[in-house]
């Protein structure tokens, strides 16, 4: 094998002028004008259309992802709506049940009150024969009205002996309803009063109610159940300025509350 002489210079590569290089590139572009090379990949130059299709295909997963998220949102909204309907049904059911229970309790309580009132009225039936005693049912309870002439002398607040049997019967009947409050009210007529003991009908009516309360306490009625009130002539039982109306208005009422 022949060797190159060390003194012989190396061959120089052929030189290409810039004009010739430009002409070569221009000729290549003219031969494939429909697919210009605009991108470089792992496999070299790629046509523009292939590059755009690959970019479009790489983002198609976003459409599926968005659809998936939308379906999840719709599903959770439906679950939330179903839970609201369920809770509303539960609340309505509880309200209906409570209303029924309350209605049943109210009916039972009313029946109990009616039974107690009927029993009290029956126990006081014997007093109904006395014209000075009146029994009545009101919205608040059973009212026992005692005419003042049965209990007191005119303008006085001390019990008469004739009042004691009546009050004894009333006390006995009241002991059979041990949990009911009792309101004792004194009433007078509209004629003004002024004597050494009472300056007006207010003092007289209050004193008479207090005397009846004291009698009930002394004969076995629990004090915490009792209250007294003087009403003077402000709640008349009869209207008019006749002696009959005056007599009807002078009274003491014992209200057994229900």
Automatic annotation (TrEMBL):
Keywords: Cell membrane, Membrane, Transmembrane, Transmembrane helix. InterPro entries: Bact_OuterMem_StrucFunc (IPR050330), MotB-like_N_dom (IPR025713), OmpA-like (IPR006665), OmpA-like_sf (IPR036737). SUPFAM superfamilies: OmpA-like. Residues 1-57 are annotated as: Disordered. It is a single-pass membrane protein. It comes from the Bacteria. Pfam families: MotB_plug, OmpA. The chain crosses the membrane at residues 62-82. Residues 139-258 form the OmpA-like domain. It is found in: Cell membrane. Belongs to the MotB family. PANTHER family: LIPOPROTEIN YIAD-RELATED (PTHR30329:SF21), STATOR ELEMENT OF FLAGELLAR MOTOR COMPLEX (PTHR30329). This is OmpA family protein.
